């Protein structure tokens, strides 16, 4: 799933955010992915370091099987590893 983002650059810091909502499973559920935190810094070699978090939420609608109704939410935290500028 592609998440469109907006961002800010201040000195050597990049901050971005964004979200996307897509119907899934023959439209009986909806997936939403939202970047909840993204902050990276750039070093003197243009490499990026930092962390980000996102929330993935699935809302099961009334057309889904009875055992699947409701909301499922997963929160992820991640670290950027080996992000470097290509020549």
Mean pLDDT: 84
Strand content: over 45%
> Within the largest sheet, what's the order of strands?
1-2-3-4-5
Quick one: how many beta strands? 5
Number of helices: 0
Q: Radius of gyration from the CA trace?
A: 17 Å
Report the major sheet.
5 strands, antiparallel
Q: Output the structural class.
A: mainly beta
**Looking at the structure, what is the overall shape?**
elongated
The portion of residues assigned to helices is: under 10%
Low-confidence stretches: none
* Alpha-carbon distance between the two ends: 28 Å
Query: Order of SSEs, N→C?
Result: EEEEE
Fold topology:
Blueprint: E1 5-10, E2 13-24, E3 29-42, E4 48-60, E5 70-79
Antiparallel strand pairs: 1-2, 2-3, 3-4, 4-5
Description:
The chain is mostly beta strands and 87 residues long. 0% of the residues lie in helices and 63% in strands. It starts with a strand and ends in an 8-residue tail after the last strand. The relative contact order is 0.22. The model has no long low-confidence stretch (mean pLDDT 84).
Condensed summary:
The chain has 87 residues and is an all-beta fold. 0% of the residues lie in helices and 63% in strands.
Keywords:
elongated; 63% strand; mainly beta; 87 residues
